[in-house]
Design goal:
1 helix, 9% helix, mainly beta, 10-stranded mixed β-sheet
Length: 187
């Protein structure tokens, strides 16, 4: 499967992240007034992420974590996507998207980067700063339809500048239920 197909699916996963943030019953729209970035995830339907950031944005991270597996209805290609946030969805704080070709990964350690056949991804800070993961690893400690947990450590470079960011942390992600006319989502 070509890397560009996976890139398209990863973009689809990111768009699902934004598109799914609409309804009052949607776990992604749960943003209590008192919720502050770094205070953990306010939704029981999503998992948790905690870690640290250094470089262009720095500090302790704590927020929501979820994953999904997207299968393109046209060509049958699929990708696993993991989303880690500092705070609640749509809080304007760092969001880490990591993807890999195929279904939910098995327990193991995988490389992250632009030049690997493994995981790739990015860090989005305050909605306007985009960083592409250049190196790192993700360790999957458990993987089932009910959840994926593990740790991640990555370095990323900002698109169009020399700025760097490093992220490390632990996650316990739950599967997000999503819908699309062009893709099928599963756990």
């Amino acid at each position: 499967m070509a890397r560009h197909v996976t890139s398209r699916l990863a973009i689809g996963i990111a768009l699902v992240t934004l598109a799914a943030c609409g309804g009052k019953d949607d776990p992604l729209s749960a943003k209590p007034k008192e919720e502050q970035p770094g205070q953990g995830c306010p939704s029981a339907e999503l998992g948790n992420f905690s870690g640290n950031a250094s470089g262009a944005a720095s500090g302790k991270l704590a927020g929501c974590a979820y994953y999904l597996v997207e299968t393109d209805n046209e060509d049958g290609s699929s990708a696993f996507g993991l989303v880690l946030m500092n705070g609640a969805p749509l809080s304007g704080t760092p969001v880490i998207n990591i993807a890999v070709e195929g279904g939910r990964p098995a327990v193991g350690t995988y490389s992250i980067g632009l030049d690997t056949a493994g995981f790739f991804g990015g860090v989005f800070v305050e909605g306007s700063r985009n960083f592409l993961a250049s190196s790192g690893s993700i360790t999957i400690k458990s993987s089932s339809a009910s959840g994926v947990s593990g740790s991640v450590s990555l370095s990323a470079s900002e698109v169009g500048s020399n700025a760097q960011i490093s992220i490390s942390g632990d996650f316990s992600a739950k599967c997000l239920k999503a819908e699309s006319s062009s893709s099928t989502f599963s756990c």
